[in-house]
Amino acid sequence: MSPSFVLSRFHSTYGNRFWFLVEERDLPAGVTSIQVTGSFNNWKPSEFWRLRFEKPGHWILDLPPGRVEAPGNSGYPEYQFLLNNSIILGADFFPDEPRIGNNFLIVPSSDAATWPLRIRELTSAQAPEETNRNWMGNFWEVTGGNLAPGKLFRSSHPFLPALADERDRERLKAVVELWNQHRIRSVINLSDGEGVIFDPACPKPYAMAARDGRVLFLPLEYGLVYYHTRGNLFLSTIGKILVFISQTSGPWAIHCRLGIDRTGVVTAILQALAGASWQNIARDYTRMAVFAPQEYRHLNLLRYSLQRLLGKVPEKSKDLAQDVRESLARSVPDQTIMDKAIANLTNAAP
Question: Taking a C-beta distance cutoff of 8 angstroms, is the pair 16, 1 a contact?
Answer without folding.
Answer: yes
